[in-house]
Amino acid sequence: MIVNNKAIPSLAKKDMRLDGRGMLEYRGPISVETGITVTAEGSSRVQIGDTIVIAGVKMSLEKPYPDTPEEGGIMINAELTPMSSSQYESGPPRMKAIEISRVVDRTIREAKAIDFKKLCVKKNELAWFVSVDVVSINDAGNVFDAASLAVLAALNNASLRDFDPETFAVDYKSTTKKKLPLTKAPIAVTVYKVGGKFLVDPTTEEENSYEARLTVGSDAKQIISALQKGGSEPITIDDVSAMVDIALEKASFLRKAYQKK
């Protein structure tokens, strides 16, 4: 659908959207599936409207960082594939993919959602390091929120592998019943400012028309672990306050979908 760039802000000023939704209404269906592949330690598929992403967890035994000798670690990588949208190209990750990776990583890491000390096998020598790949299958808008939900679901689905206690070689063909030590369930929600009004879960057309956005990562107790501002226009302190309130409310909404998986 081709939409005049001025049409969406004009509608937003009247608290209206092209698809008839309320400004703070998510598209349906919202679904969270886990265990979609047996080759990853944990995996998920998340759908919000027509936007679909998958996430997979891989774990390896590595030497801990010198400043955290008794802890494992985490790394999150987002890949926005050309098959999911004509706006993406093959090659190194572009700014949007890097931004998604960073804000989702920060949401998990700063919330201390994983007990990294429980991932330590031998102090100063060996610990589990978690790598999460999140990939867009279809981008119809709002990959930020879908990616965050997919990463959380995949981590919750993850189990540790067996390893040889003498050589520490990981047996990737076997899975233990020991789950990844998750302590919290932080979720990121992105609030967009369009036509001077706020909305969530934008379509692709709305994403191409926004003035500013704020991604807010928070846990079930509404403790904020991450903030990421985007867009060319500034936002005021009052804007930030309103956008955070909206994000916290919508995080509770998305968390219900996560808990139903």
Task: Outline the secondary-structure elements.
Elements: H1 7-12, E1 30-34, E2 42-48, E3 51-62, E4 73-79, H2 95-110, E5 120-122, E6 126-138, H3 143-157, E7 159-163, E8 170-179, E9 187-194, E10 197-200, H4 204-207, E11 212-218, E12 224-230, H5 237-259
Parallel strand pairs: 4-6
Antiparallel strand pairs: 1-2, 2-3, 3-6, 5-6, 7-8, 9-10, 9-11, 11-12
Helix pairs in contact: 2-3
Instruction: Summarize model confidence as the mean pLDDT.
Output: 93
The secondary structure category is alpha+beta
Order of helices and strands: HEEEEHEEHEEEEHEEH
Gross morphology is elongated
Task: Give the count of structural domains.
Answer: 1
**Termini gap:** 32 Å
How many beta-strand segments? 12
Radius of gyration of CA atoms, rounded to a whole number: 19 Å
* Range of helix content: 10-25%
CATH architecture, by name, is: 2-Layer Sandwich
Task: From the 3D structure, determine the CATH topology.
Answer: Ribosomal Protein S5, domain 2
Please characterize this protein's 3D structure:
The protein has 261 residues and is of the alpha+beta class. It has a single domain (7-259), classed as 2-Layer Sandwich (Ribosomal Protein S5, domain 2), CATH 3.30.230. The chain is built from five helices and twelve strands. Helix 2 packs across helix 3 (143-157). The chain is elongated.
Brief sketch in words of this structure:
This protein has 261 residues and is α+β, with helices and mostly antiparallel strands. The protein has helices at residues 7-12, 95-110, 143-157, 204-207, 237-259; strands spanning 30-34, 42-48, 51-62, 73-79, 120-122, 126-138, 159-163, 170-179, 187-194, 197-200, 212-218, 224-230. The chain contains 5 helices and 12 strands.
